[in-house]
Specification:
3-stranded antiparallel beta sheet; alpha+beta; single chain; 12% strand
């Protein structure tokens, strides 16, 4: 298993806010995450975050995405 990251570390890595991560978890369609307990501890696998970023990489506005 690769390194687990906190919300704060993940937000910094993707250049978004912790609020954005939380909203995406609620809406769906965000970065896959691990819920550690019923109390709400959430972690993100570093490799999963990198894969999410790669999948959303664009070279132009017409680019469908992905590397």
């Amino acid at each position: 298993m690769n390194r687990l990251m906190t919300e704060q570390e993940t937000a910094q890595m993707v250049g978004m806010s912790v609020h954005w991560l939380r909203r995406k978890r609620w809406e769906g369609g965000g970065i896959p995450f691990i819920k550690m307990s019923q109390r709400g501890a959430v972690r993100y696998e570093e490799e999963t975050v990198r894969q999410y970023l790669d999948a959303h990489f664009r070279t132009s506005t017409h680019d469908p995405g992905g590397r």
